[in-house]
């Protein structure tokens, strides 16, 4: 891989969940997460609730400070080597809740123009740019520019949020469940828009979603997270085709079949995901894993390279390596 | 991409949506009760402003023969008080001081309390904890006792009454400001603004203020009636406004001795206080529901 | 499978020309002359996006709509009962006795101040007049039926002491406690994680077969609908636009909206390519266009589509689509078939 445009290095983020002293509870939201993004690629991030996807996104765009670890943009550590404000214009984020992410007292044109004015663009230039962007995301600026968030539909609002992110001419956009709340037919429109923009502007995406179908469609590489850790990361094709972590297998098997002749007959996992407050020892997945063996409950699995830029953190791969 | 000239004409063409305040206004007009309350409140304010022109007599000019004339006496449509002063004129002039004592402390407390509350809410963390716990100490006293204690310590007088009422209202307003700001701060548009690289000052000015001042203001208007009643209470106790000034609370106090002689007369200042406080309360209720756009 | 039944007196549900209007200016046309049957033991999946009227249809069957605001017309018969005329005791027996409902959010159905056991027992006592002991025994039996591990201890649990998946199971146990003939499911798995969702879907499928009840399963997710349904109905802007067996609708969708939904669900899409997305958004329900409500978004719409009523293409009682093109295309296929 050439110099990654954005990379995460051993990010750790724990939240306080109440209690004092010995009874203090800690949510291990993100634990030692590292990955790299090549320019122009799309990394999909999947996992269930509490797996740390959204926290990872907020760490990546520096909305949260990591407890330890760092984020680098083009090899430069954000903060000491690259000023935060310069980083902000390079890496933007689109949130899940299209309504909450727009100021209810701002017109759409002002919402899009706000970012550039923060970075010193004149008011009239910013508004002109906002008009072009609204037009680009498929909203007629003359009709929609003067409206407020509650006067738009969910799909239209999410287009405005995308335009707002684009107003910085960013290189990377982190999309945190950005299409999950939309109706399917509208979701398809927004996915098309995202794919067009990616091609036109050479954008790099981090695409976070719980919908494996959508992630498969838009991503070059996919990262699977479980309880704050990376379970597996690899090219979409090989990860979906030949998963090397039992959790990835389970996620794929849990997808509803779209073939009435081949309905799912057995649930791949029993029970709910455990609480990230007190994650299991060793491999965090071992409590739900049908194939757990000796070392799983005690040793944290290292990252095994299982293919070209395909890595899985599962002890089973050590066995495979020996066999091979 | 179209050229710049075309873009500028485009700029002018954007149809500004009817705007937030405009839609609040139309929704407010639909609320009959709130509109009535607003008209009554506006009438009271006008009455206070134009008192010298409206009042039929001098409110300080008494006549010993006319003492405690009943309502409907010739030349004294609402009777005369214990010093024979025209009741109607005194009630009209009384609106000046009573409204002043109702509105001004709330306005000052609104300015100071919002600033404290918004700062505490936006900054969060230990700043929030220290500020809010300090205010809680003041909040722990019943407001009447606190007002009496402060004005008692400072002595009687309009200015001291004003000061004590302002201090009483800062904690509740700051508390509301803090809770509204804290809930707004968690919304994603604030995160988006942070991700844009804007400074805290820019974010508060552009994204926080507009969304929190409305609700705080509505809460503050509901305090106007409380402030009036407290001011009346202070005057009643001999703190705050002092005779011979006309002020409803003070009038209630001095007329209380006449309650067995002229009960209706003695009740008049109380009726005015009631009317004013209920109209301001209903006005603020109407404002609150009109400002809730998402309905 | 129950396709091909024709005598409507055999059916568990018979809905004819059901329309629901909500008061407003202009009024909101939430459901527009919907007709369907459901045989005992059949599972009908209603597929639609937000605002399509699928939840309103479901609530009408349980008479859960606010009576002052909603005007309901048409006939709804469940198990031979005219549901729209039920009152008082009859309505209470209908709800929870003959028909039961499960929701997306279990906290709507479970009372936070009672234990799971108490809530199930309470429902059994109310509907069957059982003794307290019998009712508790039934509660335990139900928790075991929905495969809640260590059911005996769980009886004593309050809803907040359970995980999301467990709460959903408890809600299903509560809904099925009085052996309803009909279960209405309103997006019961939407809020769940993928690995939990499939568990609940499989559980519902098993229980449905074991207890032989009819189920109407409302969802926006085609994959979920395919997992549980015998028959699918696609709903758009308050109307059923297409219905048929799951296989027919998935493999041979006739209505352009159904086709669009399938494309949006990435059925057969090549990764990274543009999707065949339906443009625009559904019309507001207080300003429905004349003719086919989908016409403004439809790629193949023509003048004929703007005329009411929209012609019906039909291939058997339970396989139809309301579309000009479906009818014409079918006619052309028939001619070609005859030519060969």
From TrEMBL, chain A:
One Pfam family of this chain: ABC_tran
Coiled-coil spans in chain: none
Keywords annotated in UniProt: ATP-binding, Cell inner membrane, Cell membrane, Hydrolase, Membrane, Nucleotide-binding, Repeat, Translocase, Transport
Reaction(s) catalysed by this chain's protein: glutathione(out) + ATP + H2O = glutathione(in) + ADP + phosphate + H(+)
Molecular function as annotated in GO: ATP binding; ATP hydrolysis activity
Highest taxon in the source lineage: Bacteria
Listed EC numbers: 7.4.2.10
A biological-process GO annotation: transmembrane transport
GO cellular component, one term: plasma membrane
Domain (ABC transporter): residue spans on this chain: 6-252
Described purpose of this protein according to its UniProt entry: Part of the ABC transporter complex GsiABCD involved in glutathione import. Responsible for energy coupling to the transport system.
Oligomer status and interactors: The complex is composed of two ATP-binding proteins (GsiA), two transmembrane proteins (GsiC and GsiD) and a solute-binding protein (GsiB).
PANTHER family per record: GLUTATHIONE IMPORT ATP-BINDING PROTEIN GSIA (PTHR43776:SF15), TRANSPORT ATP-BINDING PROTEIN (PTHR43776)
Family label: Belongs to the ABC transporter superfamily. Glutathione importer (TC 3.A.1.5.11) family.
Protein name: Glutathione import ATP-binding protein GsiA
TrEMBL record, chain B:
Top-level taxonomic group: Bacteria
Annotated Pfam families: BPD_transp_1 (PF00528), OppC_N (PF12911)
Membrane topology: Multi-pass membrane protein
Keywords: Cell membrane, Membrane, Transmembrane, Transmembrane helix, Transport
Subcellular location: Cell membrane
InterPro entries, alphabetized: BP-dependent_transpt_permease, MetI-like, MetI-like_sf, OppC_N
Main localization (coarse): membrane
GO process terms (BP): transmembrane transport
Entry's Gene Ontology cellular component terms: plasma membrane
Residue intervals of the ABC transmembrane type-1 domain: 95-284
Transmembrane segments: 33-55, 97-125, 137-159, 216-239, 260-283
Family stated for the protein in its record: Belongs to the binding-protein-dependent transport system permease family.
Record protein name field: Peptide/nickel transport system permease protein
Lineage: Bacteria, Pseudomonadati, Pseudomonadota, Alphaproteobacteria, Rhodobacterales
TrEMBL record, chain C:
Main location, first listed in the record: membrane
Keyword ATP-binding included in the entry's annotation: yes
Start and end residues of each ABC transporter domain: 13-262
Single GO cellular component term: plasma membrane
Listed InterPro entries: AAA+_ATPase, ABC_Ni/Peptide_Import, ABC_transporter-like_ATP-bd, ABC_transporter-like_CS, Oligopep_ABC_C, P-loop_NTPase
Protein name: Peptide/nickel transport system ATP-binding protein
Provenance organism: Marivita hallyeonensis
Membrane topology: Peripheral membrane protein
Alphabetical UniProt keywords: ATP-binding, Cell membrane, Membrane, Nucleotide-binding, Transport
GO MF terms, alphabetically ordered: ATP binding; ATP hydrolysis activity
Lineage of producing organism: Bacteria, Pseudomonadati, Pseudomonadota, Alphaproteobacteria, Rhodobacterales
Gene Ontology terms describing biological process: peptide transport; transmembrane transport
Keyword GTP-binding (UniProt): no
Family listed: Belongs to the ABC transporter superfamily.
Protein's cellular compartments: Cell inner membrane
